[in-house]
Amino acid sequence: MKFPKSFLLFVLCLLVNGLFAQSFTMEQVSSFSFPSELVTSSAGNKMAWAMNEKGLRNVYVAQAPDFSPRKVTAFDKDDGQEISSLQFSPDGNWLLFVRGGEHGSNWDPNVGFNPAQSTSIPKVELWTVSFEGGNAKALTEGDYPTISPDSKTITYIKGGQVWSISPQEGKASQLFEAKGNIHSIEWSPDGKKLLFVANRNTHSLIGIFSGASNPIQWVAPSFSRDVSPRWSIDGTKIAFVRLPGGKGQELPILEQRHNPWEIWVADADTGTAYKRWKAPETLRGSVPTTNGGFNLHWAAENRIVYLSYEDGWPHLYAMNPVSGSSMQLTKGNYMVEHIRLSPDKKFLVFSVNTGPSKEDIDRRHIGLVSVNGGEMKLLTQGEGIEAIPSVLSDNKSVAYFSATAKRSLLPTMVGIETNKSKLIGENMIPSDFPSKSLVVPKQVTFKSPDGLTVHGQLFEKEGGPAKKAAVLFVHGGPQRQMLMGWSYMDYYSNTYAVNQYLAELGFVVLSVNFRLGIGYGYEFHKPARTYWQGAEEYLDVKAAGEYLAGLPQVDPERVGIYGGSYGGYLTALALGKDSGLFKVGVDIHGVHNLSGRLEMPEGYEKAPDFDEAVKTAWFSSPLAYLETWTSPVLFIHGDDDRNVQVSQTTDLIRRFEERKKPYEYLIIPGDSHHWMVFSNMVKVNQATADFLKKHLNP
C-alpha cells in the first residue's frame, strides 16, 4: 500500500515528538535534597549537616567507620524555618543550631519570618539535640551562638548584646552590656575569657570579657574599625584586622581605588598591639570579598594565615606573628574558597577551581596545603563538583559536599593519603528524581565586544527540530560562578534545576558567567564601570544572547532571558535595551533603579563627580529604558525579601501601568529572596518555565 507524502510526514513528526517528549516534571527536578552547614567534631570522627528535603529541614549525623547517616531531628513541616550555626559541642556529645530567620539576607537576618503563613511569626531560636538522637529542644530566642570549651555554657547574641545559657538547666541571662552592637564572639582556649567586637557605627572596638567582677578590656582601642579577632593557640595573643574608621574626603565616585586593610597582633593581657602586616596599596591588595573574606586563622607552628587577592587571584598566605615576610601557600590561576583549618591546625582544606582539565575552571575540587607551605595537593579530581570541606578529628579524612552534572549535592568523605572517596546518603535522593534524564552541560566561551573572554554552560537535549527556541540564564550576586554541575549554593542548585527543565522542554539554554563574577581572577571580578557606575557587565549578557542566537540550531527570533536578583536587574536591562534580541523575559526580584543609591551628602562637601555619577547610575538602570522595552515580561517577587526591596518591583510595575505597558506578575506573600517554602519554589520555577514556553514555543 502506498501512503501519501503528507501522511508519512505526519507519522515522522509523531515519532520525533515522541522521542523528544518531556520525561519529568518541574516538581521532580526541583525535589533535589540540599545539604548545608557541614561540621565535624573535635573527637570521635563525627560529622553533621543540615538537609533540606522538599522543604523539610533536619539535622543529620554520621560517624566512622561506616558513616551511615542518621536523622536526629524530626521537623516535619514545610514551614521555611532554616537551620544555621550548626556546631558540635567540644565534647562531641551534642549539637547546637539556630532555627529560624533568613541568614542569607542583607538585612534583618535574625528576625523571624513567616513564609508558611502561620498565624504567628516564628521566632529565631537556639536548639540542641544529642548526637545519639532523641528529642531536640528549643532553649531560648537568640542567634550566632558559640559553646564554651567545657561544653557547659552557650553564649549568643540577642538584641545586639551577649547572653548566656546552660544547655542543661536552660536558664538564660545577659552576660554583660556594652555600647554598640556586639558580634564575632569567641571563647578563649581555656574558656575563661570571651572575645568580641563592638560596632559603634563610626568605628568598632575589640573587647575581652573575663567575668562579671572584671571591667571589659579593650584591645588597642582606636578610631578604626577592628574586626575578625582570633585567639592564638595558647590564648596569650590576639590577631585581628584593622580597617579605616569614620568617613573620608569626598573623592570621585566613579574612580576605582584601593580599599586598605591591615593585620594587627595584640597581647591578650595588656591589650597593647602592633601592626604586623599591611596590604599592598593596589587594587588587587584591597579588602578581599570572596567567601570568608579575610579568612584569618591562627594556626600551628605559630602561623597567622590569611587570604589576599594581591597576586590577582584569591590565595592563602602565612606569616610569623612577630617578624619576617609572608609566605604564599597557594599559587596559580585559580581561586581558593570555603577555607577550613584542620583540628591539629597544621593544614588547611578548601575548594578550588583547578585541575588537569581545562573545564576545571568551571568546577570545584578539594585542595589541601600545609601551613608551613609546600605544594598544594588536590584530594579530588574529575568531572564532579566538590566543595565546602571539613577535616575529621583524626586529621586523616575530609568531609565535603559533592555533586555531578546529574546528581545534586550529597555528603562525601575522602582519605587524605588514599584519595579514596565514599558517598554518604545516596538513598536521600528522591526515588522519582530524574537523574538519568538530565543533560550534561557543555563549557563554552565567547568574546565580549571589548575582547573579554566570557565562560558559560550550554544545556541542550539531543534531537528535536532543526531550529529551537533558546533561553539565556543570568545569575545573581554578582559574586557567583555557575558551574558544570549542581551548585554548592541552594539558590543556584534551584536555577540549575530550572535550566535542566527548560532543556527538557526543548530549549537551548545558556548560563552566562558575566564579569563581576568570581573564578576568573581579580580583573574579571572587580572591573571598572560596572553596576551603577556604567553597567558594562551588560556587554557580556548581550554577547551571550548574540552567541546563543547565532548557534546553527537556534531560531534567533525565539530567544528569551531570565534571572533573579542581580540577574533580574540584568534581565530587565536586557529587555529595556534589546527587546529585538530578547523576545521575552522573566525578571525575578530584580533591582531597577540605581540612581537612588546616591543621596546628596549633608553639608557643603560633595564628590567632584557627584552629578555625573547620579546620571551614570540612572542610565545604568532598567528604568531609563522603559520606552524601548517592548518584550513581554513576567515579574516575580516575594514580599518579605530581605536582599532586594520589593519596592524595586512594585515601583517598576507602577511605571508599566502608567505607560499602559502589558506585563504579568507573581507575588509570593511572606517568602524571602530564597523561596524558603518548597511549594513556593516550585510555583516560581513553574511560572518561569510556563511563561517562556508560552511566548517562545519550544
Describe this protein's structure.
It is a single chain. By secondary structure, the protein is of the alpha+beta class. The chain has nine helices and 40 strands. An eight-stranded mixed beta sheet has the order 33-34-36-35-37-38-39-40, sandwiched between helices. Strands 1-2-3-4 form a four-stranded antiparallel beta sheet, with no helix packed on it. A four-stranded antiparallel beta sheet has the order 5-6-7-8, with no helix packed on it.
Q: What is Rg?
A: 26 Å
CA-CA gap between termini: 35 Å
Share of helix among residues?
10-25%
Sheet with the most strands: spatial strand order: 33-34-36-35-37-38-39-40
Find the count of extended strands (DSSP E, 2+ residues). Answer: 40
Weakly predicted, low-confidence segments: 7-19
**How would a textbook summarize the main sheet?**
8 strands, mixed
- Estimated share of beta-strand residues: 25-35%
